[in-house]
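Class, carefully examine what follows:
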Amino acid sequence: MAHLLPLLTALLLCSYGPVGSLGCELPENSVQLSKMTWWLLGQMRTISPALCLRDRRDFRFPREVLNASHFQNTQDMSVPHEILQQISNLFHTQQASAAWNKTVLAQLRTTLRKQLPDLNTCSVVQGRARQDSVLTTESPTLALKRYFHGIHVYLEEKKHSDCAWELVRMQLRRALASTIQLQESLRSKDADSGSS
Protein backbone atom coordinates (compact mmCIF):
# COMPACT_ATOMS: atom_id res chain seq x y z
CA MET A 1 0.00 0.00 0.00
CA ALA A 2 2.86 2.38 0.77
CA HIS A 3 4.15 1.95 -2.79
CA LEU A 4 0.76 2.83 -4.24
CA LEU A 5 0.42 6.19 -2.49
CA PRO A 6 3.10 8.03 -4.57
CA LEU A 7 1.68 6.53 -7.76
CA LEU A 8 -1.88 7.55 -6.92
CA THR A 9 -0.72 11.03 -5.96
CA ALA A 10 1.11 11.42 -9.29
CA LEU A 11 -1.93 10.22 -11.22
CA LEU A 12 -4.17 12.64 -9.35
CA LEU A 13 -1.85 15.57 -10.04
CA CYS A 14 -1.59 14.67 -13.73
CA SER A 15 -5.37 14.67 -14.10
CA TYR A 16 -5.57 18.36 -13.15
CA GLY A 17 -4.09 21.45 -14.69
CA PRO A 18 -2.99 22.29 -18.21
CA VAL A 19 -1.43 18.95 -19.02
CA GLY A 20 -4.78 17.19 -18.95
CA SER A 21 -5.43 13.54 -18.39
CA LEU A 22 -3.15 12.29 -21.16
CA GLY A 23 -0.24 14.60 -20.36
CA CYS A 24 0.04 16.65 -23.56
CA GLU A 25 -1.62 19.25 -25.71
CA LEU A 26 -1.27 20.35 -29.32
CA PRO A 27 1.73 22.70 -29.36
CA GLU A 28 0.84 26.28 -30.29
CA ASN A 29 2.98 26.25 -33.42
CA SER A 30 1.96 22.77 -34.56
CA VAL A 31 -0.41 23.87 -37.31
CA GLN A 32 2.02 26.54 -38.49
CA LEU A 33 4.88 24.01 -38.71
CA SER A 34 2.65 21.53 -40.54
CA LYS A 35 1.77 24.25 -43.05
CA MET A 36 5.47 25.01 -43.46
CA THR A 37 6.15 21.31 -44.11
CA TRP A 38 3.33 21.27 -46.68
CA TRP A 39 4.75 24.40 -48.36
CA LEU A 40 8.28 22.96 -48.45
CA LEU A 41 6.96 19.78 -50.06
CA GLY A 42 5.45 22.05 -52.71
CA GLN A 43 8.81 23.75 -53.24
CA MET A 44 10.43 20.39 -53.88
CA ARG A 45 8.62 19.84 -57.16
CA THR A 46 11.19 19.05 -59.83
CA ILE A 47 9.18 17.67 -62.74
CA SER A 48 5.68 17.99 -64.08
CA PRO A 49 3.32 15.29 -62.80
CA ALA A 50 1.97 15.07 -66.36
CA LEU A 51 5.25 13.38 -67.33
CA CYS A 52 4.59 10.66 -64.75
CA LEU A 53 1.09 9.48 -65.67
CA ARG A 54 2.25 5.94 -66.42
CA ASP A 55 3.72 5.64 -62.93
CA ARG A 56 0.56 6.66 -61.06
CA ARG A 57 -0.60 4.51 -58.19
CA ASP A 58 -3.42 4.76 -55.71
CA PHE A 59 -1.73 4.43 -52.34
CA ARG A 60 -5.13 4.33 -50.61
CA PHE A 61 -4.57 6.86 -47.89
CA PRO A 62 -6.61 5.72 -44.86
CA ARG A 63 -8.82 8.82 -44.61
CA GLU A 64 -10.84 7.30 -41.77
CA VAL A 65 -7.89 7.91 -39.41
CA LEU A 66 -8.43 11.66 -39.85
CA ASN A 67 -12.12 11.71 -38.93
CA ALA A 68 -12.24 14.52 -36.36
CA SER A 69 -15.27 12.98 -34.64
CA HIS A 70 -12.99 10.18 -33.36
CA PHE A 71 -10.89 12.66 -31.42
CA GLN A 72 -11.95 14.13 -28.11
CA ASN A 73 -9.55 17.09 -28.31
CA THR A 74 -6.07 18.10 -29.37
CA GLN A 75 -4.56 15.65 -26.95
CA ASP A 76 -4.82 12.85 -29.53
CA MET A 77 -1.67 13.46 -31.49
CA SER A 78 -0.87 9.89 -32.53
CA VAL A 79 -2.19 10.36 -36.09
CA PRO A 80 -0.40 13.64 -36.91
CA HIS A 81 2.72 12.31 -35.21
CA GLU A 82 2.71 9.10 -37.22
CA ILE A 83 2.22 10.95 -40.51
CA LEU A 84 5.03 13.40 -39.78
CA GLN A 85 7.32 10.64 -38.48
CA GLN A 86 6.81 8.58 -41.62
CA ILE A 87 7.38 11.61 -43.87
CA SER A 88 10.56 12.29 -41.93
CA ASN A 89 11.66 8.67 -42.39
CA LEU A 90 11.13 8.91 -46.15
CA PHE A 91 13.19 12.07 -46.48
CA HIS A 92 16.05 10.93 -44.23
CA THR A 93 17.25 8.30 -46.70
CA GLN A 94 20.19 8.30 -49.09
CA GLN A 95 17.76 8.02 -51.99
CA ALA A 96 15.96 11.18 -50.88
CA SER A 97 19.26 13.01 -50.57
CA ALA A 98 20.09 12.08 -54.15
CA ALA A 99 16.66 13.01 -55.51
CA TRP A 100 15.94 16.43 -54.04
CA ASN A 101 17.38 19.93 -53.86
CA LYS A 102 19.72 19.83 -50.85
CA THR A 103 18.71 23.25 -49.49
CA VAL A 104 14.96 22.60 -49.53
CA LEU A 105 15.48 19.05 -48.24
CA ALA A 106 17.50 20.43 -45.30
CA GLN A 107 14.74 22.94 -44.54
CA LEU A 108 12.12 20.17 -44.66
CA ARG A 109 14.15 17.98 -42.32
CA THR A 110 14.65 20.87 -39.89
CA THR A 111 10.94 21.71 -39.86
CA LEU A 112 10.04 18.07 -39.23
CA ARG A 113 12.62 17.89 -36.41
CA LYS A 114 10.95 20.89 -34.75
CA GLN A 115 7.53 19.21 -34.84
CA LEU A 116 8.23 15.65 -33.83
CA PRO A 117 9.48 15.90 -30.20
CA ASP A 118 6.28 17.44 -28.79
CA LEU A 119 4.04 15.14 -30.79
CA ASN A 120 6.17 12.12 -29.88
CA THR A 121 5.69 12.76 -26.17
CA CYS A 122 1.94 12.91 -26.69
CA SER A 123 1.87 9.77 -28.80
CA VAL A 124 3.83 7.69 -26.31
CA VAL A 125 1.58 8.72 -23.42
CA GLN A 126 -1.57 8.13 -25.45
CA GLY A 127 -0.35 4.82 -26.80
CA ARG A 128 0.02 3.50 -23.28
CA ALA A 129 -3.36 4.87 -22.27
CA ARG A 130 -5.07 3.31 -25.28
CA GLN A 131 -3.44 -0.13 -25.44
CA ASP A 132 -6.46 -1.99 -24.16
CA SER A 133 -9.08 0.08 -25.97
CA VAL A 134 -8.22 -0.94 -29.54
CA LEU A 135 -8.75 -4.67 -29.59
CA THR A 136 -11.45 -5.05 -32.23
CA THR A 137 -10.55 -2.43 -34.83
CA GLU A 138 -7.33 -1.58 -36.61
CA SER A 139 -5.49 1.23 -34.89
CA PRO A 140 -4.94 4.43 -36.85
CA THR A 141 -1.19 4.07 -36.37
CA LEU A 142 -1.21 0.59 -37.87
CA ALA A 143 -3.28 1.78 -40.86
CA LEU A 144 -0.80 4.60 -41.43
CA LYS A 145 2.20 2.28 -41.13
CA ARG A 146 0.61 0.03 -43.75
CA TYR A 147 0.02 3.06 -46.02
CA PHE A 148 3.61 4.30 -45.72
CA HIS A 149 4.96 0.78 -46.18
CA GLY A 150 3.15 0.76 -49.54
CA ILE A 151 4.92 4.01 -50.43
CA HIS A 152 8.33 2.54 -49.51
CA VAL A 153 7.62 -0.55 -51.61
CA TYR A 154 6.50 1.61 -54.55
CA LEU A 155 9.70 3.69 -54.41
CA GLU A 156 11.78 0.51 -54.36
CA GLU A 157 9.82 -1.01 -57.26
CA LYS A 158 10.37 2.17 -59.28
CA LYS A 159 14.03 2.30 -58.22
CA HIS A 160 13.47 5.72 -56.64
CA SER A 161 12.95 7.31 -60.05
CA ASP A 162 12.22 11.01 -60.40
CA CYS A 163 8.62 10.24 -61.34
CA ALA A 164 8.16 7.92 -58.37
CA TRP A 165 9.46 10.58 -55.99
CA GLU A 166 7.27 13.23 -57.62
CA LEU A 167 4.12 11.14 -57.22
CA VAL A 168 5.04 10.33 -53.61
CA ARG A 169 5.70 14.02 -52.92
CA MET A 170 2.24 14.90 -54.23
CA GLN A 171 0.66 12.10 -52.19
CA LEU A 172 2.41 13.30 -49.02
CA ARG A 173 1.18 16.86 -49.59
CA ARG A 174 -2.40 15.57 -49.79
CA ALA A 175 -1.98 13.53 -46.60
CA LEU A 176 -0.41 16.47 -44.83
CA ALA A 177 -3.19 18.83 -45.97
CA SER A 178 -5.70 16.45 -44.39
CA THR A 179 -3.65 16.39 -41.19
CA ILE A 180 -3.59 20.20 -41.10
CA GLN A 181 -7.38 20.25 -41.44
CA LEU A 182 -7.63 17.80 -38.54
CA GLN A 183 -5.30 19.88 -36.38
CA GLU A 184 -7.25 23.07 -37.15
CA SER A 185 -10.52 21.30 -36.40
CA LEU A 186 -9.22 20.02 -33.07
CA ARG A 187 -7.84 23.44 -32.20
CA SER A 188 -11.21 25.11 -32.87
CA LYS A 189 -13.02 22.33 -30.96
CA ASP A 190 -10.78 22.98 -27.96
CA ALA A 191 -11.27 26.76 -28.27
CA ASP A 192 -15.04 26.25 -28.32
CA SER A 193 -15.00 23.96 -25.30
CA GLY A 194 -12.66 26.34 -23.44
CA SER A 195 -14.99 29.28 -23.93
CA SER A 196 -18.08 27.39 -22.77
Q: What stands out?
A: The radius of gyration is 19 Å.
